[in-house]
Amino acid sequence: MKLAIASGKGGTGKTTIATNLALTLDDKGMEVQLLDCDVEEPNCHIFLKPKIESTAPVTVLIPKVIEEKCTGCGVCAEVCEYSAIAVIKGKVLIFPELCHGCGACKLFCPENAFIEVPREVGIIEEGKASGISFTHGFLNIGELMSPAVIDEVKKAAGDKEIVILDSPPGTSCPVIAAVKDADFVLLVTEPTPFGLNDLELAVGMARELKLPFAVAINRSDVGNEDVKEYCRREKIEIVLEIPNDRRIAEAYSRGEMVIHALPEYQKTFETCWEKIIDLHQNMMQAEQQEKTATES
Amino acid sequence: MKEIVVISGKGGTGKTSIVAAFAALAGKKVLADCDVDAADLHLVLNPRIEHREDFSGGKKSKVLEDKCIACNRCIEECRFDAIHYPVLGNGKTADTPWINPIFCEGCGVCVRVCPADAISFEPAVNGEWYTSSTNYGPMIHARLGMAEGNSGKLVTQIRQKARDIAGRDDIDYIIIDGSPGIGCPVIASITGADLVLVVTEPTLSGQHDLLRVAQLTSHFRIPTIVCVNKWDLNPDLTEQIEGEAKEHGVKPAGRIRYDNAITEAQIMKTSVVEYTGGAVSGDIKAVWQNVLYALG
């Protein structure tokens, strides 16, 4: 089971849920892997304090011109859709931050004057936190292409029974890179107008990607009832509610796990997991029945 | 004309609520919501849309089934794994490949390698952006389509439009609501700005993320100040964060206390400073004064 924890709005509690859920399941003796896919601002390590065992650079391939072969014809600049190449006075200039690594310049160069060289855009670190296999990544400062680092974090996914992915906030490229192949997505929100607006965007994204999902409401007793009404109307299950408990905020502020500071919440996370598993199984069954119906 | 960008690194620290308050406090200004992934400022400022325009983040490829000879050249050269033979409703595989618009990066390689001229390449509409009027002044905002990328390009367009209006109407300030993180949309929203205000919170996550943002703004050489929201949740950490920020050349811009009035104002669709004359509004006014001072 690969579960992605996502949200449109930032700061709703993705990391709190990802880490506490992971540790709750680990404590129950399950095999758990946690992948922190928020490579711009990774935070899971602050709470799980993993022992890092290995570090590796993340590289992307960028083009490099072999000067002797280049005739300055300008085809590379013409075929680059990202304006990552300019040819000025017969000389090729490459802007590596803008390169998406599509390979067009190399492929269409009539002189075969390009090679591709690796360029570091971030790092990934792997380790252990309690029994949890842990991986996170850091995008280098000033780099644009966080999906490259996210993809690398995700390659660490092994054959553990449970893989939990902590996604970055938002609904665009980095989030899609994180959640696209998940079995189930948990969308975290809070019961405020901003929370609701961004939940609607996140639901739109999950539906667009055809991913099964449910909602978690954090600080569930602040704000108003609009998020719950929206979920009722859209027939979206709410599998977790965490109250606005100042003790949680304080534990969070110190980098402590909720289930350590307030063990009574362990049960909350266990129940949430059971609900997700049930929902996922029901959805799979419904899908199977639909398939059988179409085939016959 | 001065451009002020409010960002946070970590999400959910109160950027949008603070920008809304600045909207009520500043003199002549243009407001720009550059958190295009999860735009929320319109929920408070209630813009009246006067002009809308399609946003195209780039081109998208599409297979023309009647021309396709199923040679698979496109599949071989696509580096984004975006082209497959889809399985149809009847369980059979399609005769021609399909380009998944979510994974297509618009590089055009498939278009150029296709020997049958069977792939179209048209600008995709990825969202809309708006020029609006509000009770506080003109506002530029946008809505990015579901699961769309290229938010950096949209941010750049929004900023350009805000500058055009500010120049035309002789407006003093452009106040920009940015997005969380340190990647593509954040970089697009801060490059060349006059001042960045980072809104953080006194948590270990907030502290960790602030340092990454401070490195980013220093990388792009943008003057940066920081305010700590909900500072009284952890006064010691607030002190520590302000100290560390100073070491990175980021001066403190004030502290905002924890007050539920911020959430209440959001629900009432108004800015905090208009909602209450209480102490929290005084805190935000002091931050705005510090912004003006930092602008010189």
Short characterization:
The complex is a heterodimer of chains A (296) and B (296). Chain A has helices at residues 14-27, 44-48, 75-79, 104-108, 146-155, 173-179, 193-208, 226-234, 246-253, 258-261, 266-295; strands spanning 2-6, 32-36, 51-65, 85-88, 91-94, 114-129, 132-139, 162-166, 184-189, 213-218, 238-242.
What labels describe this entry?
A: 296 residues, alpha/beta, Rossmann fold, Alpha-Beta Plaits, 2 domains, two-stranded antiparallel sheet, 11 helices, 11 strands, B: 296 residues
Structural summary, described in words:
The complex is a heterodimer of chains A (296) and B (296). Chain A is of the alpha/beta class and 296 residues long. Chain A has two domains: 229 residues, P-loop containing nucleotide triphosphate hydrolases (Rossmann fold); 46 residues, Alpha-Beta Plaits. In chain A, 38% of the residues lie in helices and 27% in strands. Chain A is built from eleven helices and eleven strands. In chain A, strand 9, helix 7 and strand 10 form a beta-alpha-beta unit. In chain A, helix 1 packs across helix 11 and helix 5 runs parallel beside helix 6. In chain B, helix 5 runs parallel beside helix 6. In chain B, strand 12, helix 8 and strand 13 form a beta-alpha-beta unit. Chain B has two domains: 215 residues, Rossmann fold, CATH 3.40.50.300; 67 residues, Alpha-Beta Plaits. The two termini of chain B are 12 Å apart. The model of chain B has no long low-confidence stretch (mean pLDDT 95). Chain B is α/β, with parallel strands linked by helices. The interface between A and B is large, with 60 and 66 residues.
How are the secondary structure elements laid out?
The complex is a heterodimer of chains A (296) and B (296).
Chain A: E1 2-6, H1 14-27, E2 32-36, H2 44-48, E3 51-65, H3 75-79, E4 85-88, E5 91-94, H4 104-108, E6 114-129, E7 132-139, H5 146-155, E8 162-166, H6 173-179, E9 184-189, H7 193-208, E10 213-218, H8 226-234, E11 238-242, H9 246-253, H10 258-261, H11 266-295
Parallel strand pairs in A: 1-8, 1-9, 2-7, 2-8, 9-10, 10-11
Antiparallel strand pairs in A: 3-6, 4-5, 6-7
Helix pairs in contact in A: 1-11, 5-6
Chain B: E1 2-7, H1 15-25, E2 29-33, H2 42-45, E3 48-55, E4 58-63, H3 73-77, E5 83-84, E6 98-99, H4 109-113, E7 119-124, E8 127-134, E9 137-144, H5 151-168, E10 173-177, H6 184-190, E11 195-200, H7 204-219, E12 224-229, H8 235-247, E13 251-256, H9 261-267, H10 272-275, H11 279-295
Parallel strand pairs in B: 1-10, 1-11, 2-9, 2-10, 11-12, 12-13
Antiparallel strand pairs in B: 3-8, 4-7, 5-6, 8-9
Helix pairs in contact in B: 1-11, 5-6, 7-8
